[in-house]
């Protein structure tokens, strides 16, 4: 869902055009107070701000910014921007956010994979060292070999995911 914040009369028409262009519902709020209430009630994928409203009420606008959550903000001057430009800017911002989220996800996965690889490597080294201990009871050696086999399996799966 998209939140459109504007007190201009053409906001409703713009909202309908955005709905058609994005296939998402658009909620229109004429004031920042209404916008904060909506943000506290539900989550939005994007918030389109009327720049003039932000300039007239900067403190109230700041309250909205603090409550954005995962929504991508788009600021436009509705007095001079046509509906086509609003749609282009919104699509561009949403695509940019999607790319950013994918990049962040890949980075987090890669970081986790490296951490797990380090832990598995340490586990394998510990198993090898433990198996080299003289007079290691057979039951302990058997358990260490099982742990080593599991660690190698995890290592192989981590390698396959890369």
Structural class based on helices, strands and sheet pairing: alpha/beta
Topology order in helix (H) and strand (E) letters:
EHEHEHHEHH
Largest sheet: spatial strand order: 2-1-3-4
Low-confidence stretches: none
Please report the distance between the alpha carbons of the first and last residues.
Answer: 34 Å
Tell me, briefly, the overall form.
rod-shaped
- What does the radius of gyration come to? 27 Å
Instruction: Please identify the top-level CATH class of the largest domain.
Output: Alpha Beta
The profile of the biggest β sheet is: 4 strands, parallel
Number of helices: 6
In the CATH hierarchy, the architecture of the largest domain is 3-Layer(aba) Sandwich
Short description:
The chain is of the alpha/beta class. Helices cover 68% and strands 11% of the residues.
Describe this structure in words.
- By secondary structure, the protein is α/β, with parallel strands linked by helices.
- It folds into two domains: 2-81, 3-Layer(aba) Sandwich (Rossmann fold); 106-161.
- It is built from six helices and four strands, in the order βαβαβααβαα.
- It has helices at 11-22, 32-41, 51-56, 58-66, 83-131, 138-161; strands at 2-5, 26-29, 46-50, 72-76.
- A four-stranded parallel beta sheet has the order 2-1-3-4.
- α1 links the parallel β1 and β2 (26-29).
